[in-house]
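Slide 14.
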Amino acid sequence: FGVSVTPEAFLIDRSGIVRYRGAIDDNPENPQAAENLYLQTALDRLLQNQSIETSTTPAVGCPLLWRNSTETTG
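Slide 15: predicted structure.
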């Protein structure tokens, strides 16, 4: 999926189509203070068979560091 930070949310419909990708909400530092619940809104709209107006948002989080799967940790 090309994820570069965590968390990054994906909402996938029954057909396997990604309908939303990005941030969970607009306040990753304090979810209780979030004003835009991006993932929840997309899920609600999908379940109501409505179009998802905001289908992507920038994901904010810790960068993922990839390493070769043949490397061992010591």
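Speaker note: The chain has one helix and four strands.
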